[in-house]
Amino acid sequence: MVVMRELRAAARARTHISGSVLTAFAVTGEPCLIQNISPRGASVVFREGFAIPRRFNLVIGRDRHAQQALKIWRNGNVAGVKFLEFQPNAPEVLLG
Fold first, then answer.
1. Within 13 A of 50's CA, how many CA atoms are on the CB side?
2. pTM, full prediction
């Protein structure tokens, strides 16, 4: 039996928030889906074949709040990201 150890610094809230990825080289944002979020990071689903950058701005939800993100892990088209700036009011404000 394999036991997975939780490495997250904060619990995440399940969501289904639309977002987009902006990089220094992009003219437009790449759509994505934020499937869970915490004050310190998120799990993000991208379209198949999208080359997920190591660092990017994650634009979250209707209010278009941008958060600098660092890719920590990837499994297929899903990536776990760490926010480079702590968001003490997430997910409440970010879910807005």
1. 22
2. 0.76
| Average pLDDT per block of 10 residues along the chain, 96 residues long | 49 83 82 93 95 94 86 97 77 48
Where in the sequence is the domain holding 21, given as residue range(s)? 13-83
What tokens were used for 82?
Answer: 């760490």
Reading phi first (left if > 0) and then psi (alpha if -120 to 50, else beta), residue 80 is in: beta
Q: Nearest-CA neighbor of 47 among 23, 27, 18, 67?
A: 18
Domain count, the chain: 1
Asked whether the beta carbons of 33 and 43 are under 8 A apart, the reply is no
Closest CA to 67 of 39, 27, 36, 33: 39
